[in-house]
Specification:
Elements (H helix, E strand, L loop, with lengths): L1 E5 L5 H13 L4 E4 L8 H11 L4 E4 L9 H14 L6 E3 L4 H6 L7 H16 L4 E4 L3 E5 L10 E5 L2 H10 L2 E4 L4 H16 L9 E10 L3 H17 L3 H6 L4 H12 L3 H6 L3 H7 L1 E3 L1 H11 L5 E8 L3 H15 L2
Parallel strand pairs: 1-2, 1-11, 2-3, 4-7, 7-8, 8-9, 9-10, 9-11
Antiparallel strand pairs: 5-6
């Protein structure tokens, strides 16, 4: 998979234009990010489905806390049906910092995500479902059955990566540094060792913030914003792996939670930036992506893409094409 993440902080028509440009640039998957303060993720995906022909489409990611998992399964099935079978279900626990703005506690995230897509698979096959776990469903069913939709789990920690490799069709690994991909490849191997024989192929996909431009400084400056979200939600072992001060990371997370994204970006250090984003001129980005593909099977270029998104899309299409091994 050669994928891209598009962010509905822009008007829907703008994101649709970006998806058309991504398809022309050779991307074969487009994910739409979700934060409650942006435009609706699934409404945007439906508009993209109407404007494109071949590119696969899905949430990157949807979380099963704001929306009941059965409803989430129906929304994903709608996109898959409307796009002619081009759906990809990106699902994960979401950002703890932004969920807290809504008074939502991210309780038992691994179980919640696993139960969500297992129930979704049963619904997509036309089953009626009773479920009593991290959420409840009684005699739930869809009035249509799209069939199997590939499931990609958004993951960063060891247990979520292992779970994805055991049960899902792929993982969207939130990382941008070869050290993290080497570590993640070991967790993937552990999960695959317990994977059922009939579970099918598994795709270890990198999912990293990327910012590319001919002006390297401008590209790196733009990357500070998504890095702030990564740092604010990063577990202590991940911070320690890159020698990042935990108190400095907490201050970034506090600014994100307060909604002061400019202050959060200003608190991102060069060490944080190098650990959690790929940014610079096209040739530098190409080298960094190629290093990650020593471990991963495929790659998704996540927001911000660049200081000029429209200019970045064809640059990234070429970069990812050249980085395939």
């Amino acid at each position: 998979m050669r994928g891209i993440e598009l962010t509905p902080e822009h008007p829907v028509e703008t994101v649709v234009e970006q998806s058309v440009a991504a398809e022309r640039a050779g991307f074969d998957a487009a994910f739409v990010s979700h934060h409650y303060n942006n435009r609706d993720q699934f409404g945007t995906l439906a508009a993209m489905a109407a404007a494109t022909d071949d590119i696969d489409l899905g949430p990157g990611i949807a979380n099963p806390y704001e929306t009941h998992p059965v409803t989430l399964a129906s929304r994903m099935a709608t996109v898959d049906e409307y796009s002619g079978g081009r759906g990809l279900f990106g699902v994960g626990p979401g950002d703890a910092s932004t969920l807290s703005n809504l008074g939502i506690e991210r309780d038992r995230p691994l179980r919640r995500v696993l139960e969500t897509f297992k129930v979704a698979r049963r619904l997509w096959e036309g089953e009626r479902v009773d479920h009593d776990g991290t959420f409840h469903a009684s005699d739930a069913a869809l009035n249509y059955a799209p069939g199997r939709v590939p499931v990609y789990v958004g993951a960063q920690g060891p247990d979520m990566v292992r779970m994805a490799a055991k049960h899902a069709d792929g993982v969207l690994f939130n990382g941008a540094h070869p050290r993290d991909y080497e570590w993640a490849s070991e967790r993937v191997a552990e999960g695959l060792a317990a994977r059922p024989d009939d579970a099918g192929a598994f795709d270890f996909a990198g999912y990293a913030p990327v910012s590319v431009a001919e002006d390297a400084a401008a590209a790196r400056g733009q990357a500070r914003y998504p890095v702030a979200f990564v740092v604010g939600d990063a577990p202590p072992p991940l911070l320690d792996r890159h020698g990042i001060d935990r108190e400095a990371a907490r201050e970034v997370g506090d600014a994100v939670e307060a909604g002061d994204f400019s202050a959060a970006a200003d608190r991102v250090t060069e060490r944080m930036l190098s650990a959690f984003a790929i940014a610079g001129r096209p040739e530098a980005v190409e080298r960094q992506v190629a290093d990650l593909l020593d471990y991963a099977d495929s790659f998704v270029a996540a927001a911000p893409l660049g200081p000029d998104v429209e200019a970045a899309i064809p640059l990234l299409g070429a970069v990812l094409g050249n980085s395939r091994r």
